[in-house]
Amino acid sequence: MRYWEDVKAGDIVELGSHTMDKERMIAFAREFDPQPFHTDEKAAEASIWGGLIASGWLTGSVLMRLLYDGFLKDTASMGSPGIDELRWLKPVRPGDMLTARLTVLEVTASRSKPDRGIMRSLMEVLNQHGEVVMTTAGVNFFRRRPGR
């Protein structure tokens, strides 16, 4: 189990990878983000994107899964109050293999709750060409080591 004291500014964690499946992209978009360039191949071809692209919200969901599997499941995570920034920088297409990494920017002890600390991080999602397709700056709470 990794506690707040085990996380240091400058740490870089490779979170894993995920290949984007066209049918799952379309199904997600039909339910949650039904813009034609996410749901209809012909409409997408005629759009500024020149083809089908994933909803950014799906890309964010993939990042969340990679974050959990690659980092959070082995920590004393207490959740997050939110993110400070989210950017979709390049379109994600069917068949793209996305990888994600987390860079710890800052760790601070909570002033009001001595049982926890705060981690600020930058998360990046890259495609198979090494291009950054999404970034987010996040905030997480972690339990401090018992008996410290």
3D structure, described in words:
The protein has four helices and five strands; from the N terminus they run E-H-H-H-H-E-E-E-E. The longest helix is centred in the middle third of the chain and has 15 residues, at 56-70. The two termini are 15 Å apart. The mean pLDDT is 97. A hairpin with a 5-residue loop joins strand 4 (116-126) and strand 5 (132-143). The chain has a five-stranded antiparallel β-sheet, with helices on one face. With 148 residues, it is α+β, with helices and mostly antiparallel strands. Helices cover 24% and strands 38% of the residues.
User: Got a strand count?
Assistant: 5
Q: Helical amount among residues, as a percent range?
A: 10-25%
Largest pleated sheet: 5 strands, antiparallel
> Tally the helices: what do you get?
4
Which strand order do you get reading across the main beta sheet? 1-3-4-5-2
Determine the mean pLDDT: 97
- What's the shape? elongated
Strand content: 35-45%
Give the termini distance in whole angstroms.
15 Å
Instruction: Indicate the structural class.
Output: alpha+beta
Low-confidence stretches: none
Provide the succession of SSEs: EHHHHEEEE
**How much is the radius of gyration in Å?**
17 Å
